[in-house]
């Protein structure tokens, strides 16, 4: 029987980053440009003609040249797993190249070898908001069905290359975010306001087919591979017990459930088909699409969890939850982070139970953390550190709720805290929005030594891992 009074013995503790937020070296060793290299203000900001000096991601924290030092620190914390992504444009600089870039492949060989040296399992996202810029400019990203073939070629290349080094794979990061951030998430250069629902959901279909296809390819290359989807989880509460508000919340959640429904159950759910019918959307299925979706479900569901939102039948009557990544209305019962994100530990238990009740497949929390303005200080021994008790409190509360979900019977594989080392924020492109257990000396104006310093939370998380979550 599965352990139900706490995290299982082989629970995968670790941390998570994305290549575009840590690596830097944007033009080193043959790497091509990605959509991140032209979005200096973050996920929903301006798109520039090319790389600009104000884009912190071009250098980020220079993990490209510091990965040995950083992975050693992760090992010191006791990580069992390290989630990162492969920058697609390091492997295929344009995305549609005939041959891969050997220097890029070798870099990830080096990173994964370094992880394995310490007994850390790599958990690798194939596409983490890093579509090659050429694919966005020439094909309008995932609007074009030819993207499926480019993605299959890229996935096959890295699956074969790392088949003995990487066991855990994710296809698309927060795939449901394409509905809100089509350029960053889907490489779709057409402005969101000019995109029709038909075009947007056809692009979604292309991504979903690609996800199923590379899941099939992965299992053919190595049957031991574990392939997961990755969604942005955001429980939606009715603002009142008015049945109309309850229904509004249900419909909002269904928009996100559609993605996991298709990844796990292999077919479009009825509520989405109704939405299509009522909005004149006609998804073009090519021969074999339905079979791919049905026959190649993911092995597990992974997700990010930062906040919950509230919904109402008449949202204009309430205050907007503008600080939240994807809107909603303000929940008066919750505190907020410095960036206005609702803090809701209990929501994590709700998400875990809802996903597991619905799908009965293993779950993996691959992003969770607190973005905050940290202050670097010197302690009594003259060592630089950050007194980030607020971060420990945030994580303690969320991990306690994850443990409650395990007691409820949820099959939880692991937990990778987001931004385990400070990185450039995806939403705001700031360094000052810090998540890590390790402080990186870099500032929003680009200054800083890039020196690494352990925060107070470093030792706290180390003890959490050592005790398998008993010491929270």
TrEMBL record:
Keyword Transcription regulation: no
Keywords on record: Glycosidase, Hydrolase
InterPro entries: GH, GH_1_N_CS, Glyco_hydro_1, Glyco_hydro_1_AS
One function term, GO molecular function aspect: 6-phospho-beta-glucosidase activity
GO cellular component, one term: cytosol
UniProt keyword Hydrolase present: yes
Top-level taxon of origin: Bacteria
SUPFAM superfamilies, per database record: (Trans)glycosidases (SSF51445)
GO biological process: carbohydrate catabolic process
EC number(s) stated in the UniProt entry for this protein: 3.2.1.-, 3.2.1.86
Residues of the active site: 367 (nucleophile)
Family, as annotated: Belongs to the glycosyl hydrolase 1 family.
Record's protein name: 6-phospho-beta-glucosidase
